[in-house]
Specification:
This protein is mainly alpha-helical. The chain has 13 helices and five strands. Bound molecules: tryptophan (TRP).
């Protein structure tokens, strides 16, 4: 069976775009692959974090993903810093990675901006830790969004470099471009739904009343579009297709085609279908967060399964590099 590794940032709220674009896909992948899902708290440290807040963020990330359907029975769900082999392999791979390759990463250029010499070096070596995450389990498949493809390409280069220097060891991890939906901002449908755009997103923790308000306020028409569906309406249809039964979608598509669609009807139905889809997730998430002890046990069990796998690969790597022995 193919092995999947994916890293999940503990960066606060998960929104509808993340859910329909990625998380729901991770849930499905559990049927076909051996999956490792890792909350990457060490990656989060590449930007400043409050020590008082980080634990809650990690707990929320675990709770949210469990509520969405990641299953600790079938998948290994754990927190990165609980398996110290990640950082050890990261160092070994850092020594194989050209600085130039890291400086070329688009995400580094965006995040470091003009402050390259004052930001933490973790921002630069971020993709090496990501490569270590994946290679530590010899994962061959990595579900990623478009924005992580470049990092994954570098992970493959690092794997090749290791293999050619020390002998065949790692498979070259392939991206699995998440086939999920691309959900646009409700209030600016030409941009992607994003946490950094207020009013653009619906969080998975959102109360029904707020969901209704946000959907009712969604932009529909933005001036004449000719015969094309406006981006806002198109986005509402995309969301509807992902949360409503096919006959409901068909009814609205037909109404649109015959020119009898009222946007307020579309929005009302969409809001109710969203509430129907998201309520169980919100409730389960809230319930899990009242029992942090249980969350702790789930990820401790995940780390206990991940760690021996990581230790075996790290031992192989060190042996090949000539470490840990005198002769
Ligand atoms: N960099 C990824 C992101 O921001 C998170 C991540 C860390 C990851 N390690 C990974 C993703 C390993 C896939 C595989 O989304």
């Amino acid at each position: 069976m193919s092995r999947i590794f994916s890293g999940i940032q503990p960066s606060g709220e998960v929104h509808l775009g993340n859910y329909l674009g990625a998380v729901r896909n991770w849930v499905k992948l559990q049927d076909e692959y051996e999956c490792l899902y890792c909350i990457v708290d060490l990656h989060a440290l590449t930007v400043p974090q409050e020590p008082q807040e980080l634990p809650r963020r990690v707990a929320e990330a675990i709770a949210t993903n469990l509520a969405c359907g990641l299953d600790p029975e079938r998948s290994i769900i754990f927190v990165q810093s609980a398996v110290p082999e990640h950082t050890e392999l990261c160092w070994l791979l850092t020594c194989l990675t050209p600085i130039g390759a890291l400086e070329r990463m688009t995400q580094f250029k965006d995040k470091a901006g003009g402050k390259r010499h004052s930001v933490g070096a973790g921002l630069l070596t971020y993709p090496v830790l990501m490569a270590a995450d994946i290679l530590l389990y010899k994962a061959d498949t990595v579900p990623v969004g478009e924005d992580q493809v470049q990092h994954l390409e570098l992970a493959r280069e690092i794997a090749r470099k290791f293999n050619s220097t020390y002998g065949p060891t790692f498979p070259e991890p392939q991206p699995l471009l998440t086939a999920g939906a691309r959900i646009m901002a409700l209030n600016a449908p030409e941009k992607k739904m994003s946490k950094s755009l207020p009013g653009s997103y619906i969080s998975l923790a959102e109360e029904p009343e707020t969901i209704r308000q946000k959907v009712m306020r969604a932009v529909t028409d933005v001036g004449p579009q000719g015969n094309e569906m406006s981006p806002g309406v198109k986005n509402l249809f995309t969301i509807l297709e992902n949360v409503a039964p096919p006959d409901v979608v068909k009814q609205f598509r037909d109404a649109y085609a015959s020119g009898t669609l009222r946007y307020s009807d579309l929005k009302q139905t969409l809001a109710e279908e969203l509430i129907r889809t998201l309520t169980p997730i919100r409730e389960r998430r809230a319930e899990l967060l009242t029992r942090p002890q249980e969350l702790q046990e789930i990820v401790a069990a995940g780390a206990a399964r991940a760690r021996p796998m990581a230790q075996a690969v790290l031992a192989e790597v060190k042996e090949k590099m000539g470490l840990g022995r005198l002769l």
